[in-house]
Amino acid sequence: MEISFLGGTSTVTGSKHLVEYKGRRLLLDCGLFQGLKELRLLNRMPLPVNPSTIEAVILSHGHLDHVGYLPLLVKNGFKGHIYCTTATKAIAKVILLDSAKIQVEEAIRARAGGYSRHSDPQPLYDTEDARRVFPLFREVPFGEQIDLGHGVTFRLTPAGHILGASVIHLFTGSRCLVYTGDLGRYSDFLLPPPADIQGADVLLIESTYGHTLHRTSEEQINQKLIHHLRYAAENNSLLLIPGFVVERAQVLMYLIGKLMSSGQVPKIRAYVDSPMATAITDVFTKYSDLLKISAQELYRTINSYDFVENKSDSDQIVRAKFGRVVVAGGGMLSGGRALSYLYEHLENPNSTLLLSGYQAEGTRGRALQSGLDEIKIFGKYLKVKMRVDSMDGLSSHADRGDILRWLNGFSRKPTHIYIVHGEAHASDSLRLKLKDTFPHARVQVPRLGDKVEIGK
After folding, report:
1. Staple partner for 338: which of 157, 212, 242, 332, CB 3.0–4.6 Å?
2. Do the strands 137-139 and 202-206 form a parallel or antiparallel pair, or are they unpaired?
3. Using one digit for the tens of pLDDT, what is the confidence trace for 431-449?
4. What is the C-alpha separation between 244 and 395, in angstroms, rounded?
5. What is d(CA 41, CA 118) in angstroms, rounded to the nearest whole number?
6. If residue 168 lies in a helix (H) or strand (E), which one and from where to where?
7. What's the pLDDT at 35?
């Protein structure tokens, strides 16, 4: 078995792991690079293998950094099946269509504004490219063993990260490779914890928070939300919360909805301004049996919000003079409708930006979180006068404690561990810990493009 690390190494984006066994090629995840320009440029580079030679793709979950390269893979010759859970398929379709739409819009805007170095900037792919992916999806129930032929099988178990997220178990002969994708938490607000597994011979494990613990309590989260909601209500101002549209937006809706229904905050208009978040919320209602909250709680949350569909309605809310909280698409402020609010309000000291999750290097969210005094939006530099705050504790990623708790249940101890999906300091911190936890294993943090061979 050979594994090539084509993305998601020493970074949290672009997850792609190529497994070769007896001349066959399988791809675990097919994500888009985001954040730093040098990473985003990798999306336009050809893969080191011809996509037409890849027989199948197995997806861990539907986030853009795990599925967003699929339209390019298909465009460049991939014709195999794409295996995933039913909920992942539903989420991935929404994510890919939105990604295509944003890329087309950005290319048009760059062309009109003249702020691209290319005379005719082009999107990575368009909506038709995204739609060509859909017929290749094959739905896989949790726990079912799928035979890919020639001694290769796989199954999926719940990862607890987002709706439908899976840990991938790939069997080649007598060897078991486990890829976590993104592992969830044991104290998630909406989802059950990751399922216990027996173990692995080869382990590919994420490390987004492999160096730290989520120490923020639900009470602390609620107090921060109450503080900012009250400020917005009392000052007739905007509270903008950019939300990752898959699970983060729904968690925010759930927590804010509970505060409003309990009377802990004054009455304030609440909006979800993201067609994609609206579509994903519909997926949540369709597959509410995967959640740990009741369908009744979910519906009560949804009914607390106005869902903004039209851009003209969004523009009115951007310029409104009354107090409002807006959960808008674009969790790292790399795109989505949150940018329109930010463009209009960044120089308004009465408005509030509340960042609600991990901000990758090279994103506007990281720049604002780091205290940068001006940022560039739509080709224009704006001074940062807006009230900027961050809220920890909402991540859907396992922290160091969650990862070690999950690994502690392994009876089959891995002989090879590869630490992926984390910035360098996080991955290396987890590497040092796992060297002690599994003293007989080879523990590595692969670099982009590395290829390793596992036995014969």
Report:
1. 242
2. unpaired
3. 999 999 999 999 999 999 9
4. 10
5. 13
6. strand 166-172
7. 79
Euclidean distance between CA atoms 172 and 30, whole angstroms = 21
* Secondary structure E strands in 404-456: 416-420, 442-444, 451-453
* Stretch (H or E) spanning 311: helix 311-319
Q: What is d(CA 49, CA 366) in angstroms, rounded to the nearest whole number?
A: 33
Cα–Cα distance between 78 and 445 in angstroms, integer? Answer: 28
Give, as one character, the DSSP assignment of residue 175. Answer: E
Alpha-carbon distance of 368 to 353, in angstroms, equals 9
Q: What is the pTM for the complete model shown?
A: 0.90
Q: Is the pLDDT of residue 115 over 70?
A: no
CA distances from 191 to 44, 250, 293 (A): 35, 11, 8
Structure confidence at residue 358 (pLDDT): 78
Q: Which of 172-176, 266-270, 402-406 ranks highest by mean pLDDT?
A: 402-406
Rounded to whole angstroms, how far apart are CA atoms 201 and 261? 49
Give yes or no for residue 316 having a pLDDT over 90.
yes
Say how far apart CA 262 and CA 441 lie, in whole Å.
51
Does 116 score more than 60 pLDDT? Answer: no
Q: What is the pLDDT of residue 57?
A: 98
Instruction: Using the predicted structure, report yes or no on whether residue 456 has a pLDDT greater than 60.
Output: no
C-alpha distances in Å from residue 371, one per residue of 43, 288, 364, 375, 386: 29, 39, 11, 10, 11
Digit-coded pLDDT (tens) for 210-258? 999 999 999 999 999 999 999 999 999 999 999 888 888 899 999 999 9
For range 402-407, the mean pLDDT: 97
- What pairing do the DSSP bridges indicate for beta strands 81-84 and 374-377? unpaired
Reference 139, options 79, 191, 88; nearest CA is: 88
The burial of 324, by beta-carbon neighbours within 10 Å (0-12 exposed, 13-18 middle, 19 or more buried), is given as buried
Q: Measured between alpha carbons, how far is 213 from 206 in angstroms, rounded to an integer?
A: 15
List the beta strands (DSSP E) in 48-149.
56-58, 81-84, 137-139, 146-149
What's the Cα-to-Cα distance from 382 to each of 289, 327, 331, 373, rounded to whole Å?
45, 22, 19, 9
Under DSSP, the state recorded for 58 is: E
CA-wise closest residue to 49 among 31, 32, 25, 65: 25
